From TrEMBL:
<protein>
    <submittedName>
        <fullName>Uncharacterized protein</fullName>
    </submittedName>
</protein>
Length: 110
C-alpha cells in the first residue's frame, strides 16, 4: 500500500517537496563529495582530530599520573597482561590435566 492514494494529501506534498529538493541538491552534493578538495579537507580534519586527541590524551595521562591514578592506556596495558596470564594459566592447566606420556619404548630403544 505504498501508492499515493493511501497517503494523506499532507504526506504527498511532503514527498513532492522532498523530491524537488533532492533533484536540485543531489547533483551539486555529489560533485562536491567527489571533488579532490573535499577529500583533502576530510583527510586534513581526520589528521587534525587525531593529533588533538593524542595531545589531550597525553596531557590527561600526565595529570592522572601526577595524582597517582592510572590512565586509560595503563588500564588497557594491564588488561592485555591479565589476558596473557589467563591464556598461560589455561595452557598450564591443560598440560597438567593431560600430561604428555613421554617417549614410547620403541623411541627409547633407538
Amino acid at each position: 500500500m505504498n501508492d499515493s492514494s493511501s497517503k494523506s494529501p499532507h504526506q504527498n506534498r511532503l514527498r513532492s517537496l522532498y523530491n524537488q529538493v533532492e533533484t536540485a541538491v543531489a547533483p551539486k552534493a555529489d560533485a562536491i563529495v567527489a571533488s579532490a578538495d573535499f577529500l583533502t579537507t576530510v583527510n586534513t580534519v581526520i589528521r587534525l582530530r587525531r593529533t588533538i586527541g593524542s595531545v589531550i590524551a597525553n596531557a590527561e595521562a600526565g595529570l592522572l599520573h601526577l595524582a597517582n591514578i592510572p590512565s586509560a592506556t595503563d588500564i588497557r596495558r594491564l588488561h592485555r597482561q591479565i589476558g596473557a596470564l589467563d591464556y598461560e594459566i589455561r595452557l598450564l592447566r591443560l598440560a597438567t590435566t593431560h600430561p604428555d606420556p613421554g617417549p614410547t619404548e620403541t623411541e627409547n630403544s633407538k
